[in-house]
Amino acid sequence: MIAVIADDFTGAAELAGIGLRYRLSVQLFTEEVERTDAELIVVSTNSRSLNRAEALLVTHKAMEALMALKPKFIYKKTDSVLRGHVVDELKEQMQLQEFDKALFLPANPSLGRTIVNGNYYINNVLIHETSFAIDPEFAVTDSAVKSMLRANDDRDVFVLKHTSELPSKGIVVSEVESKADIEAWLKKIDTGFLIAGAGDCFETLLEKLGCQKRTVENVALLQPHLYVSGTSFNKSVQLIKEIENKSAVVHYLSSAIMQEQDDEQWYQQIALSIQQKQKAVIAIDEAVTQSISISALALRTVMAKAVKKVVETNNIHEVLIEGGSTAAAILAEMNLHEFVPANEFSRGVIRMKSNDLFVTVKPGSYELSQQIKDLYL
Question: Model pTM?
């Protein structure tokens, strides 16, 4: 059995989907980890959105639960663009597992995310010049990797090429431009390293273990279905506008809902979309959020409560959620904590079942699969 500990829900789902693609039986947990026969166990701590002390506490508890299951290894899944308490959580896991060295491969070259000469690039553009510069919680103002990690003064963090000599201890952040670089890094290290990183590294690890891919299957979503967008990334915002222009199924959170007031007219409009079109979209209008000055945490909370009410009152069978923090808040509000991955529509777009509900999640910055776009455009 292999274990993964991830710092947010969509990242956990992404690796669960990769495991599914490589023919592993998979279970994903957000709270208590139960003993299971699954070949891959994935735990989401949702620590990225917590303060440092809380993040380390939930990481510690999740690690203790996973270590008790005695997996072959525990892979640490971080955000590929280094948001959250990455170095602190890595050091916590290293201490618990008694590692003094870690190989950290956060780059995803298959998605155009690379680390070259100490800097992070998105499709050959420095990351601080992309949409990540306006992330509401982790705005990137400097593309230097050590700066992004808030580790400029940390002598135990090294950004190196795979041709470099390895230090005797510490965290090695790997420069990567291609999958070949990832393969070279994994060949370079021994079993004395904790391995951490993003999806491309995990996929390469599974291939190294001899896992074989399965073919992708087309799956028809159940009706009615609900699409929830909780991200500010440009492509996602633009897609919502395209859907809005094509059909009257987009419903932005009203100012009343955001201020935790009842808004029956808003709920009735969504119910009408579901009755007439068998689908609806709930999204965020940034102009409204700015006018009432609501925090990201408060916005996730009101969004979660609204989505729960819509799902429960409209016999929703399928929910699609964009954004890891938004997904975690909604699923916690609905008291859903254990998931069995069913389908990988595309990289990071993962459909899972929990109780009688199918939930598809994706990171805000990832591309939505064409199959789902076609349902709305």
Answer: 0.91
